[in-house]
Design a protein that fits this description.
Layout lengths: L18 E2 H7 L5 H9 L3 E3 L2 E2 L5 E2 L5 E3 L2 E2 L9 E6 L29 E3 L7 E7 L2 H8 L7 E8 L4 H9 L1 E3 L2 E3 L3 E4 L15 E8 L6 H8 L4 E9 L2 E2 L9 E3 L2 H10 L8
Parallel strand pairs: 9-15
Antiparallel strand pairs: 1-4, 2-3, 2-5, 5-6, 7-9, 7-17, 8-9, 10-14, 10-15, 11-12, 13-14, 15-16
Helix pairs in contact: 1-2
């Protein structure tokens, strides 16, 4: 007599729907993937009651905890801001010196975190984009995105044609070769106050395709010039609207959000 056939236990089919843990956390707006990898390594994340490790994959059925707090099963809708950063603010959340940060002025969030798309240093003003979508932020900042960043730069002294040519062709600094994709002469009246001496200062617009640390200032300093003011005026196709004064922000409209995802290389707006 044949034994009754017992159907095999159905295994959890996650291979085609699961995602890397740090990607899921980043998509919830908790930080960049790199930052979240450090959280996992530090033992701050658990999955189904067990400490997570790098390489873990999860799906919608898994219970994820961060610092002992349960992650909401339902994803909150992501948000997107354009902020006009004034000088005198840092782009870190905390500062041992007690300086103001860009996050102080942003709206409070629940179960999400604002992520800055790139950074501007303490003495640099201008356009910053923020999102709660860590995956989007990571893509926008990655060198492969090849997104242009344009800055208005005020330098002291008369700039020579040789210096401009060098900065266009590339300058060897201690950590690599740096260059501007474009340099255009600006008008002093664009930014200087009427009472200032315009002959001592020259304004230029410069374009970069990567945002490396102090790259604009360092390139000008390599030619013997001092940058006295620096402002980011464009990121990709985004400019600062005239109505958004320093220290103010606006929520991006849906058409602008779609543009962000396209800039990041996503085929369409899916969030």
């Amino acid at each position: 007599m044949l034994e009754p056939t017992v159907p095999p236990m159905r295994k959890k089919a996650t291979s085609d729907v699961s995602e890397k843990l740090q990607k899921v956390l980043a998509a919830r707006g908790l930080g960049s993937r790199r930052e979240l990898e450090r959280w996992i390594t530090a033992g701050r994340v658990s999955v189904n009651g067990k400490l997570a490790k790098l390489g873990d994959r999860v799906d919608d059925e898994d219970r994820i905890q961060v610092d002992g707090r349960q992650l909401n099963a339902k994803k909150a809708a992501h948000r997107y801001l354009l902020y006009n950063k004034p000088e005198g603010e840092i782009c870190s959340r905390d500062d041992p010196e007690g300086r103001k940060t860009v996050f102080d002025r942003l709206p409070r969030l629940k179960n999400q975190r604002w992520i800055s798309v790139g950074r501007l240093d303490f003495n640099t003003s201008g356009l910053l984009l923020f999102t709660t979508d860590g995956e989007l932020a990571n893509k926008l900042m990655h060198p492969s995105s090849n997104i242009e960043r344009e800055y208005a730069v005020r330098v002291l002294g008369e700039v020579t044609a040789e210096a401009l040519s060098s900065m266009r062709q590339g300058v060897l600094l201690e950590d690599g070769i740096f260059r501007f994709a474009d340099i255009q002469r600006g008008k002093n009246e664009d930014y200087d106050e009427p009472h200032q001496k315009k002959k001592a200062n020259q304004w230029y617009y410069v374009v970069l395709k990567e945002g490396k640390n102090r790259e604009v200032r360092r390139l000008w300093e390599s030619q013997g010039y001092t940058v006295s003011r620096l402002k980011r005026v464009r990121y990709g196709s985004f400019f600062i609207p005239s109505a958004v004064k320093a220290g103010r922000f606006i929520d991006l409209k849906i058409k602008d959000v779609k543009t962000l995802y396209k800039m990041a290389g996503f085929p369409d707006f899916r969030r």
